[in-house]
Each structure stands twice: as structure tokens, then as C-alpha cells.
Amino acid sequence: MSEPRYRGRFAPSPTGPLHFGSLVTAVASYLEARTRRGEWLIRIEDLDPLREPPEATGQILQSLEAHGLFPDEPVRFQSRRHDAYQAAIDQLLASGHAYRCPCSRKELAEHEGRHPRHCRDSPAALADRPCAIRFRLHDERCHWTDRLLGPQTQIVRAEIDDPVLLRKEGFYAYQLAVVVDDIDQGITDVVRGSDLLDMTAQQLQIYEALGERPPTWLHIPVILNEQGQKLSKQTHAPALDDSRATYNLVDALTALGQQPPAALRTDSVNQILQWACNHWNYRAIHLTAQ
Ligand code: GLU
């Protein structure tokens, strides 16, 4: 069987405007797709309106455009994909890979992560309380290979780590939506920040439960601020200044270990991306900071 054509994506959650850390991830996934002669998509993971200022999606898309990062297909929005997520949940419930769970975080913590109401094992015993739907993990010492970081081992703890797929408040969760959409969009290769490394083993089990082949993963080091914290909305990472796009791109390439010449800053966005495609070497990434 021939290998499917490379398809990659950048999948930001619109909790705020694009910051330097997310630009680095976007650039890495874009360059991987371009140099592998593949397609590159943008997916807005807008699953939680309570954490997403309404203007963030527009700001992110505008910033990506200002940096010359254009997708090969129309942008996908997870907020328009609820039917697909519900269908996956129905499938997982029917096959016994998911279960209804009324336990609060506090109750779980008081029982060391175990479900006091036995919802995992005896659904009939559920009280009339609002329920989340969780994925039923199986205990496993999971082995997989990251394209950059090499062989990974993760211990998956059934019950204790069972991820929520649908929250009690009715919101579909990241762990479900990311897998359903990566499958539906035919994503073959995921490039993302290593803050998501720990999620990978759980996602592998969801692929398996849905009977689908997982993509490869390449996790790039998270960009830290001067205090050693991950650049994110929580650590008040500043929004990118789109009027300095050429500077931002050269800085992103430097953070990715690509050693762009400083003179590149005065070139156009397209010239910089062309230079980056000609010189891209993902193995250089881990030579820079963790
Ligand atoms: N939406 C996730 C985030 O912004 C990334 C999803 C992924 O790349 O798997 O953190």
C-alpha cells in the first residue's frame, strides 16, 4: 500500500491573539508540510466559548496572513463540527470505550482519582446528576516514537486519567475533537508544542478505539519567557506585532535552530519563507533551548 500524501496542520485554540510561541509552532508545521511536498491546513479549535474572546479568531487568522502563512484549504472551525463529535461519542459509547460520569473533580480527588460512584463499571448505578462523558482508557505502558524527540514511553493509568470527551456543561473536549478532526482531515503528520506531549498516549488509545491509523507526531520545544514560563495567555505573552512580520519570522527561525542570516530581516515575508523552505532541517530544532 502506498503511503498517503503528507498533510499537516496548525490548530490553535483562540484564547487570545497569536504570540511568539504559537508563531514558532505554526512556522515549524508549515515548513515541514512544504518541504515534504504536502498540504498545510489551519484549524481553529474553538470549543470553549467561555475562554475565547470573540475577536481572537480574526486576530489569529490575520496574523498568520501577515506572516505569509496561507493554508491550502479553507480554514476549519471546530465550533461547526459538533455533529461529528457527537457521532464519535455515540460510537465510543456503543462500543464500550466511553462512559457517563457524574463525578465532580472534588469527589475524584477525595478518592485518589477513582470514581466513588462506580460509574465506570456500572452505568446503571448512576444518580440523576448531570454527567460528563469520559473515555475508558486501558492501563498501558505506551511506546511510540516522536520524530524529533525519539522513542517515548508513557504510563497510561486507566480510570485515574480517563479524559473527558464531553463536559457536563455540554462542551466537547479537546482530546476528542483533535482526534476526530485529524482523522476526518486526513492529517498524516502532527507538528505541535511539547506541552501536548503527555496527551499523545491517550490520543493513541482514542485512535485505536475508533479503528483508525494514528498520524506521526513531532513535538517542538515550548518557547519560554525570561522567567522560564511557557509563553501563553496565562503567562501574559504579548500579542505579535504584525507590522514586524519579517523580524518575527527570522526570530522564529532562530528559535527553531535554523540560523537564518540577520540580513534576511530586510527581505519580504515571502523571501524569508522561501529561504526557510530551502534550508529547513527539523533535526536542528532540539539544538536550541528546551
Ligand atoms: N489547540 C491546541 C492548542 O492550541 C493544539 C492542538 C494540537 O496541535 O494537537 O494548544
UniProtKB/TrEMBL annotation:
The coiled-coil regions, if any, are none
| Pfam families assigned to the protein according to its UniProt record, in alphabetical order | tRNA-synt_1c (PF00749)
Q: Name one GO molecular function term.
A: ligase activity
Tell me the residue numbers annotated for binding ATP. 233
Motif span ('HIGH' region)? 12-22
For L-glutamate, which residues are the binding ones?
A: 9-13, 45, 174, 192
Keywords attached to this entry: Aminoacyl-tRNA synthetase, ATP-binding, Ligase, Metal-binding, Nucleotide-binding, Protein biosynthesis, Zinc
The main enzyme category here is: ligase
Q: Does the keyword Metal-binding apply?
A: yes
Q: Which domain of life is it from?
A: Bacteria
Pinpoint motif 'KMSKS' region by residue range: 230-234
Enzyme Commission number(s) from the entry: 6.1.1.-
Q: What does this protein do?
A: Catalyzes the tRNA-independent activation of glutamate in presence of ATP and the subsequent transfer of glutamate onto a tRNA(Asp). Glutamate is transferred on the 2-amino-5-(4,5-dihydroxy-2-cyclopenten-1-yl) moiety of the queuosine in the wobble position of the QUC anticodon.
The protein's matches in HAMAP family, at most eight in alphabetical order, are given as: Glu_Q_tRNA_synth
Q: Which family does it belong to?
A: Belongs to the class-I aminoacyl-tRNA synthetase family. GluQ subfamily.
Instruction: Indicate what this protein is called per its UniProt record.
Output: Glutamyl-Q tRNA(Asp) synthetase
